[in-house]
Structures are given as structure tokens and as C-alpha cells.
Amino acid sequence: EIVLTQSPGTLSLSPGERATLSCRASQIISSTYLAWYQQKPGQAPRLLIYGASSRATGIPDRFSGSGSGTDFALTISRLEPEDFAVYYCQQYVDSPLRFTFGPGTKVDIK
Amino acid sequence: EVQLVESGGGLVQPGGSLRLSCAASGFIFSGYSMNWVRQAPGKGLEWLSYINSGSSIISYADSVKGRFTISRDNAKNSLYLQMNSLRDEDTAVYYCAKYDYAGNPKFDYWGQGTLVTVSS
Questions:
Q1: CB-CB: which of A44, A50, A102 is closest to B110?
Q2: CA of A106: which chain B residue's CA is closest?
Q3: What is the pLDDT of residue B102?
């Protein structure tokens, strides 16, 4: 079973700063199968990034994803007030078919 | 506009059963796989179950296998989750999520969730 670890658990930053979130897999995974989601309090998750680096429809270009193998990252180039939220990475395994989420990184206002 | 609306949550005693529904609109429901994901209070996301468009491929997380059953009715544009033998630890917000593959698996749309509370 592949386990996803996200770090840091909490990232305290100010608006305008750059945020770099890490997602590490316990085994090599295909970048095709790595996605990132944003969740704000009281709201459903929202797809940000799929295929490790492709932005979902309507996602601002300040969000970018990168990585391969076991190490992946989500970068927010300049934090906007609406970006303070929890971010989850997710991976897909096709045999047996299952999905796994990381524990999340909370980005809060410093 | 894609819309997913969950219903059926509520308070249930341990050992009880509940059936969740997810009404879909704004896309060709019969053409897409669907998932259920839950989130316990203050915790992260947990994938529960997947069903493909024709209900021929179904998968469950180990935590719910044998207790929960996913199903769908394409004629009614609806997804279901039958939950039996409920435990305290099943207390969570339950989300349905549309699955899109197109080369990259992703949950591209989510409902707002329905709260299930398991308590005596």
C-alpha cells in the first residue's frame, strides 16, 4: 500500500509570499496519477492540479505543480487571501483500484 | 453547470443502517465513473468507494468493505451508498465526487456533502 506524506503540517505565511507544499509517496508513483485539491472551511474540496502539473479549469496560474517519482510539490507563487486553506495530494492505484489522500497541509495567515 | 447534491445523512445508532444518495445534473451521468469520499470531523479526506459508468467495476476501501455498498441508477442520474453495521468512527461528512480520467485520474467535481452521525 502506497502512503502519502505531506509536509509541513501547517504553513504560516503572509499574503504575497510564496508557498511550497510537499507530498512524498512511500513508493514511486506515476506523475499521471497525482492530483492536488484545495479545501476551505465548510466547503467541499476543489480540484487544483492533476497529472502532477496540469492546472484544472479555472485555476489561477499562481498555482503550479511539479515533481516525479516519490516527491511532488504544489507551489503558490504569491498567496492571495482566498488561498488560505487546506491542501491535499491524492494518488491513484489501478490494481487493485483505489485512491489515497495525503493528510493535508494547512496554509494559514501569519 | 455540473451539480452533485448529496442527501440521506442524519443521526443513526451504532449498528444501524443508512442510505445516502447523490443527485447529479449538468453532465452525462451515465458516461462517468463516480466515487464516495468522507471526512471525519477535523480530519482529512478518506476515499471510500468507486463505481464505473456501467456498474461493472466497483472498488472499496478496506475500512468499509463488506459493510458499505455503492450503486447507481443511470436512468435517475443518481449515485447511492448503502451503509450497514455503522460504527462511531463512521461519523463524517460524506461527499460524492465525479471521476474524470481522460489520461489523468481526478475527482473534478464534488458535492457539498451530507453529515452522518453515528451515536447512541
A1: A44
A2: B44
A3: 84
